[in-house]
C-alpha cells in the first residue's frame, strides 16, 4: 500500500482486458465443476478490481483538479469504456445465472450476487451502449458546468462551495445578496442545464424502451439494484413523510423564524439557524482532522484502526481548492482495499459532517474490504446511507471536541436538519417519477411540476420574488437528478434507519453499536431490507415505522430552549 499521491496510474489496455475477460468467460461456461467456476469468479473479480481501481483513481484526481487535462481525458476514456466493460460483466452475470452449479456457488457466495446478476442483465443490452456513453458524457458536462461556476459576489469571484459561508451570514443583507448572486448564476445558465437535462431524459427513455421497459422509472430502480421494493412501496413511504414529517418540519421552520426574530422566513434566511450564528468548528482543517483522529480512537477499536489507516495513506482530500469539483463523496480503490474521502471544507459545521458522514461510508467499506467479491464491498445506496448517517449520530458524544460552546447548537440543528431534509428528499424523488413518466414534458413544464411538488412538502418556502426560483428552477442544483436518477429516496429511507440508531444510542441501548458494526461488516452481501433486519431496525416502508421515530425526535427537540442558543 502506498500513499494516494504515490500510487501510479496506468490506463487499462481495453483490448487486453476484453481478451482476458472473454477467455475467462469461456472457461467459466465450459467448467466441468463448481470448483473451476469458483476459480474463474475470483479471476474475473481481480480483473474487475484492476479496472475499478484505475477508473476510480482517474475519477478522484479529475475531481480534485478539474482543470487537469490529463485526467480530464482519462475521464473521457472511462465515460466511453465503462459501458464496454459493463457489457463484459453482464455476460458474466448471464453465465453465472445459467450455471449448472448455481446451488454450489450460492452456498459459497450467497444469494445476493445472483439477484444482482438478474437485475443487471435485464437493465442492460448491447443496443444501448452508445446511448449510455451519451448519458455519461452529459452527466460529465453537468458536473463540469457546476464545478467551473464563478459567482460574482461583492466584486469577488467564488465557486459554489466558497459562497456557502456568506449564505449563512448573521447579516441578513449578506445572506440575501449571496443567495441572489448564486441564483443569478443558475438563472444565467438555466438554458444550458435545461438542454442537458432534456437530452438526459430523452436518452434514458430511449434506453428504457430499447430494453423493453415502459419508461425509465422501472429501469431506474433496476439500475439502483433495488431487488426488494418498488415504486409503489416508495409512494407509501412518501405518504408517511407527508403525514408525520411535514408537520414537524413546518413547526421547526416556525421556531427558526421566531428564533431569528423575523416577520417572514425567506429562502435566504433558511441557512441561518441562530441569530448568534451557526455552530462552527473552533479550529482550522488540521485541528479538525486531529480531533477526528481522537474521536475515532475513543469510539471503538475498529474505528481507530480505520482512521489511522486513512491518515497513514493520505486517503482524504478535504479542503476546498480552486477547480475542485463541488460536493463530497467517498469512493474506494479495490486493489488497495482502501476507501477514499473527497470533500470541500468551508469552515462551517459541514466540515464535521464530512468527517462523520463520509467517514461512515469509508468505515463500512473498510469493514467489508475482505468480503471476497466486488459486489459485496458496498450495498445498495439506501443501505450505504445508513452507515454514513448513523455514524453522524454515533459521533455525538465527541461533538464537544469540535464545537465547544456551540455543541448544543450543533446537535439541535443536526437533528432538525435530519427532519427538514426528509420533505425535500421525497420531493426530489417524486419529481423524478413525474419527469420520467412524462418524458415529453418541456423544460417549463418540468419547472412547474417541481414547484407544485416542492410546495406540497415544503409549504413554508418563500422565494421572495426571485423569478428563477418562483418558476421552479431550484432542482437544477441537485446533481443527483442529472447524474444518478432515482438516487435520492435512499437518503430518506436511510435517515429513518439512522434515526432509529440515534434513538437507541440516546436510550443507552448497548446493542446499538454492535448492530451497526454487524451492518457495516455485512457490506453488500445482502439486500436492503435484509440488512435492515440484520441490524435489528424497523423496515421504513412499514406504515408503523416513521411515526414513532419522528415522535422521539420531536420530544428531544421540544426539550431544547432554542431561543437561548
Ligand atoms: Zn452519503
Largest sheet: 3 strands, mixed
Q: Fraction of residues in helices?
A: 55-70%
Residue runs with pLDDT of under 50 for 5 or more positions: none
* Radius of gyration, in angstroms, nearest whole number: 23 Å
Strand content: under 5%
Global outline: globular
Mean pLDDT: 96
Count of distinct strands: 5
Quaternary assembly = single chain
Order of helices and strands: HHHHHHEEHHHHHHHEEEHHHHHHHHHHH
Q: Strand order, main sheet: write it out.
A: 3-5-4
Structural class: mainly alpha
Keywords summarizing the entry:
4% strand; three-stranded mixed beta sheet; 24 helices; mainly alpha; 5 strands; two-stranded antiparallel ribbon; single chain; binds zinc ion; globular; 565 residues
Describe it.
- The chain has 565 residues and is mainly α.
- It is built from 24 helices and five strands.
- The mean pLDDT is 96.
- Bound molecules: zinc ion (ZN).
- The site of zinc ion (ZN) has 4 residues, from helix 14 and helix 15.
